[in-house]
Design goal:
The structure is a single chain. By secondary structure, the chain is α/β, with parallel strands linked by helices. Helices cover 34% and strands 17% of the residues. The chain folds into two domains: 205 residues, 3-Layer(aba) Sandwich (Rossmann fold), CATH 3.40.50; 42 residues, no CATH class. The strands form two sheets. It has an eight-stranded mixed beta sheet with strand order 3-4-5-2-6-7-8-9. Strand 7 and strand 8 form a beta hairpin.
């Protein structure tokens, strides 16, 4: 058979074969993102790789000495590892403050008499409603992942759909700290304001207890407005801010002795006892006062109370010490990094 006949026969056989169906390659489901991380931080540079493959004294070189203290390998196989991370997430990175608001009508002499006042908002002073509406955004407690006014319900994991479906249509009786709150957030602090249905002198950790009372009738002794059963040594740590509307449209400010003591040691508190302020700065000054009082309280308790930053740093250090892998050889060190899917290691940069 001539070569022409062989070529013709091969072409016929090829044409008789069914066409091969082309399929895209399967998507990669496992990625080692640590490689990109190490490369961007210079730990997997060409120079570093050269020393790794060619230097017999790599473990004694300056490259490994620079890499080992900066990146810690954590063992995430331990059952308590995830729980420790959740506990870390429950520590706020910012200062958190709370203000409890009460409305005291004329001839009322005790906060216990004020709880029924919120049931009829139309009978309240319109300036009071304007003031509380400017304190922050109305947030539902069960759909909020930040500070809510209590440690038990704060800093929890929230579903994305639930967190974006907050309703701002709430009555004053619903903004009680259990259903909803007024929430304010800036770069350094988060605040919660609410109108409780009962009074308690209990504090939330190192946070200062701040009570804001709207006074239709002015009272000189604000501490006497506290319930009798709560006039205990704990109540002496409560700062009370009284707001009394005047006939000329201004508002007179009153502070109890605890708040006055804080004010005397912290000149940044905008409210002074006996001062008069206009309505357009009332909500702003109120937020600043709550913030300054809480910050001053934490400074006084600096021996027994830590800032949010130092508390988180201390907790992270304990987690690293508890779960850290101890690697003394370079090959073992990189094996734990690049085979993390098998050994379930977690990498933390310090």
């Amino acid at each position: 058979m001539t070569s022409e006949d062989q070529a013709l026969q091969r072409s016929i056989q090829i044409n008789e074969k069914p066409p091969v169906e082309t399929k895209p390659p399967e998507s990669e489901k496992q990625f080692e993102s640590i490689r990109l991380f190490l490369s961007q931080y210079g730990f997997c540079s060409l120079d570093a790789m050269y020393h790794m493959f060619n230097s017999k004294q790599w473990n004694d070189s300056k490259y490994f000495d620079r890499l080992r203290p900066s990146i810690k390998l954590l063992d995430s196989n331990t059952d308590s590892f995830v729980e420790d991370l959740k506990n870390l997430d429950r520590i706020s990175p910012m200062l958190y403050c709370t203000g409890q608001i009460y409305y005291l009508k004329r001839h009322q002499q005790n906060l216990n008499e004020s709880f029924e006042n919120l049931n009829c908002p139309e009978e309240l002073n319109p300036n009071f409603l304007t003031m509380v509406s400017k304190l922050g955004k109305v947030i539902e407690v069960n759909r909020h992942g930040g500070w809510t006014g209590t440690l038990e319900t704060s800093w929890k994991t929230i579903n994305v759909n639930a967190s974006t479906s907050n309703s701002t249509t709430k009555t004053l009786t619903e903004i009680d700290g259990l259903n909803s709150i007024f929430y304010w957030l800036d770069l350094t602090s988060e605040m919660a304001f609410y109108l409780p249905h009962q009074f308690s002198a209990e504090q939330q950790g190192s946070e200062m207890r701040i009570v804001i009372i709207w006074l239709e009738e002015f009272h000189n002794d604000l501490d006497s407005l506290l319930p009798v059963q709560d006039q205990s040594p704990k109540s002496r740590e409560i700062s009370i801010i009284g707001i009394h509307p005047l006939k000329n449209g201004l508002f007179r400010i009153a502070l109890n002795p605890t708040a006055q003591r804080m004010q005397s040691t912290c000149a940044s508190i905008p409210f002074l006892d006996g001062m008069v302020v206009p309505s357009y700065v009332l909500s702003f000054f109120l937020r600043q006062s709550v913030h300054s009082l809480n910050r001053r309280k934490r400074l006084e308790d600096s021996q027994s109370s830590q800032t949010a930053y130092s508390l988180r740093k201390s907790r992270i250090t304990k987690i690293i010490e508890k779960y850290q892998h101890r690697s003394h050889q370079l090959d073992e060190y990189f094996e734990q990094i690049f085979f993390s899917t098998r050994t379930a290691s977690t990498v933390v940069q310090c």
